[in-house]
C-alpha cells in the first residue's frame, strides 16, 4: 500500500534514506550523509512524501518537491522487487512531468529512470559533494 507520510513514520523513513544513500553512493564519504540526517528528518515534515508499506512495515518512500523528485528510496532487502517502480508509477499518476538529479556514478539509478521513460537533459556538478550529476526529465505523453 502507498500512502502519505505520517509523523510516526519519520524515523523509519530517515533510516531508509541514510542506509540507501550510504550503499548507493559509495563514492561519497559516509560522513556527508550522516551529517545531513537530522536536517533531512526535519524536511520530511515539510515536503510531499509517500511511503510504501507492506504488512505494517515501511519498505520504501518517494519524496517530492513540486515536480522535482528528491528521491526514491527502497530498503536493501526489497530492492529490485518492484517497490521503486510502484512508487514511481504512483507519483507519475499525480504529475504531468517530473524531474530529478542523479549522480553519474549511480548507474543503477540511471538505468532505472531511463527504463521508466526519463531522459537526460543536462549535466552539472553537485557543489556539496563535488560529484557530477545528470538532470533527468519525464513528461506524460
What do you see in this structure?
This protein is an alpha+beta fold. 35% of the residues lie in helices and 35% in strands. The protein contains four helices and seven strands; from the N terminus they run βααβββαβαββ. It has helices at 10-24, 30-44, 83-92, 107-115, and strands at 2-4, 48-54, 57-65, 68-74, 97-103, 119-126, 131-139. It has a four-stranded antiparallel β-sheet, sandwiched between helices. The protein has a three-stranded antiparallel β-sheet with strand order 5-7-6, with helices on one face. Helix 1 packs antiparallel against helix 2 (30-44). The chain is globular and about 40 Å long. The protein starts with a strand and ends with a strand. The relative contact order is 0.15.
List the helices and strands and how they pair.
Blueprint: E1 2-4, H1 10-24, H2 30-44, E2 48-54, E3 57-65, E4 68-74, H3 83-92, E5 97-103, H4 107-115, E6 119-126, E7 131-139
Antiparallel strand pairs: 1-2, 2-3, 3-4, 5-7, 6-7
Helix pairs in contact: 1-2
Write down how many β-strands occur, each being a DSSP E stretch of 2 or more residues: 7
Q: What percent of residues are in strands?
A: 35-45%
Low-confidence stretches: none
Helical content band: 25-40%
> In DSSP terms, counting alpha (H) and pi (I) runs of 4 or more, how many helices?
4
Distance from N terminus to C terminus (CA atoms, Å) equals: 26 Å
Rg (C-alpha, Å): 14 Å
Profile the largest sheet: 4 strands, antiparallel
Class computed from helices, strands and strand pairing: alpha+beta
Multimerization state: single chain
Mean pLDDT over the full residue set: 94
Q: What spatial order of strands do you see in the largest sheet?
A: 1-2-3-4
Summarize the helix and strand pattern as letters.
EHHEEEHEHEE
Q: Outline, from the CA principal axes?
A: globular
